[in-house]
Amino acid sequence: MRLGRLAGDRQLPAKASPCGAHHFAGGCHKTAMIDWPMVGRNALWITGLAIALAAASYNDWWRSLHGESWRHTWNTPRFLAPFNGGLALFSAGLALSSGRWWEIALWAALTLAFVVQAVVYWRAGVLIGWDSEPGRAPQEVEYQGEGQEEIE
Prior knowledge:
single chain; mainly alpha; two-stranded antiparallel ribbon; 6 strands; 55% helix
């Protein structure tokens, strides 16, 4: 028999608890091992931030390799498509983690804006080239004929 605290010279028996050692004045203390929905929401914004930072890092490396200016490389679909995609995941994760309706609405609006920009820059990369600045004419490429290589 388990014994409780001392009461004078004698010991009183402890109350039997269905919680075992985790009994406290407010009742049973039930702990969940892992809150998987919270892990998923936080993984979403962390992944989005990692993608955005990786896009910036890759863009810096590519710029130094090709000798381009910062202004040119930060304004190309090569950088803008993955950067906006990462920011869309980031803001979606924060929208799912928010508790107030207005926070959710603001993060959802940002998510939508970043998704639209990511799609626009992805299409620009496919259509005019990943190294062309959107809003400028695509670079002209001359071909000698069918099956021939480019002449620059």
